[in-house]
Amino acid sequence: MEIVLNQGFNALTAKSLGDHMGVDPSAMYRQFHNKDALLVAIFDRLANDFESDLPQATSPRGQIERQVFVVRNFFVKFPELAAILSQADTPPRATLAAAEQIVTSLKELGYQGRQLVTAYQSIEGLVVGTSVFETSGSPHHWAIRNNRYRMMGYDAFREVATGPDSVAAIANDSFKLAFLSLLDAIEFNAPINLA
């Protein structure tokens, strides 16, 4: 964990981990069959820390919000991991637990069958899609978007394009707006006939 937290995910190798732990690097492969499996285990550990920082929620909507913001905040803090985990063969236990909680909450709102799957996929697509898109390549990605904002010719965009950090803050605000709008639609239209 120290390697990842201090040097990033790219610094994590069997050799660096073995050296850090004082064991033969090949011992890592007896425990984890590849780097993705190791990253999944790290994700599970870190996600538990993130989840414990958020207050408990009692309503179905609150439970969905809690799970979504745990995942989103994690991906913002560890952008290298977003794309890797979205393509991992074996999903981390923490993401499966979050998915189960979201599905349970959607069922409590009255969703069943295809509507349940569609509502879940809407949430998952927004969370994972925007997180991977917005955090992949950051902070370079934020600098590119900042430059684009300044070149758009609108005062409002130029005023907020004060640097990559301001663009990242706007991206987080836009995620919240999109997610809460989606959640409003899911909550107030449950269940609707999508056929």
Structural descriptors:
195 residues; mainly alpha; Tetracycline Repressor, domain 2
What does this 3D model show about the protein?
The mean pLDDT is 82. The chain is flat. The relative contact order is 0.10. With 195 residues, it is mainly α. It starts with a helix and ends in a 7-residue tail after the last helix. It contains eleven helices and no strands. It has a domain at 57-188: Tetracycline Repressor, domain 2, CATH 1.10.357. The protein has helices at 2-7, 14-21, 26-31, 35-52, 60-77, 79-86, 93-108, 113-135, 140-151, 155-160, 164-188.
Helix content: over 70%
CATH architecture of the domain at 57-188: Orthogonal Bundle
Name the beta content range: under 5%
Q: What is the CA-based Rg, rounded?
A: 19 Å
CATH H-level name of the domain at 57-188... which superfamily?
Tetracycline Repressor, domain 2
CATH level-1 class of the domain at 57-188: Mainly Alpha
Distance, first to last CA: 47 Å
Short description:
With 195 residues, the protein is mainly α.
Give the helix/strand layout.
Elements: H1 2-7, H2 14-21, H3 26-31, H4 35-52, H5 60-77, H6 79-86, H7 93-108, H8 113-135, H9 140-151, H10 155-160, H11 164-188
